[in-house]
Amino acid sequence: MTDETVHVRYLVDDVAAAIDFYTAHLGFTSNTTFLPAFADVQRGNLRLLLSGPESSAGRAMPDGRKPGPGGWNRIHLLVDDIDTAVAKLRAAGVPFRSDVVTGPGGRQIVLDDPAGNPVELFQPAGR
């Protein structure tokens, strides 16, 4: 199977809120919507599957563990101007886990989507 698209699943508490967040703030477009259980949004080659508690991905595991949002694994989105992106998101009330950090490869910051899933904005060095 050949597909250039990268598919990432995020568990979310509220699918509609997640759609609004990713489309309004991070440049995604909405594709499929089956509220309240599931939707997917896309930005370039990234298809983000937003699975709510009512989705099949939200069902308990055989040992009783229940999948949920959050954690530290994250999608990594490139930006041209991290300072402008951060200012715009802060003005919209988006919560951040960190301040902008500079490393050898560039600058990054981690923010939370409405369910607490992390999203990293990254500006490569030299941009």
UniProtKB/TrEMBL annotation:
Q: GO biological process: what's one of them? A: L-methylmalonyl-CoA metabolic process
One short Pfam name that applies is Glyoxalase
- What is this protein called in UniProt? Glyoxalase
Q: Which GO terms describe its molecular function?
A: metal ion binding; methylmalonyl-CoA epimerase activity
What UniProt keywords are attached to this protein's entry?
Metal-binding
**Presence of keyword Transcription:** no
CDD domains attached here?
VOC (cd06587)
Which InterPro entries does the entry mention?
Glyas_Bleomycin-R_OHBP_Dase, Glyas_Fos-R_dOase_dom, MMCE/EMCE_epimerase, VOC_core
- Every copy of the VOC domain together lies at 4-124
From what superkingdom does this record's organism come? Bacteria
Q: SUPFAM superfamilies this protein is in? A: Glyoxalase/Bleomycin resistance protein/Dihydroxybiphenyl dioxygenase
Q: Point out the signal peptide segment.
A: none
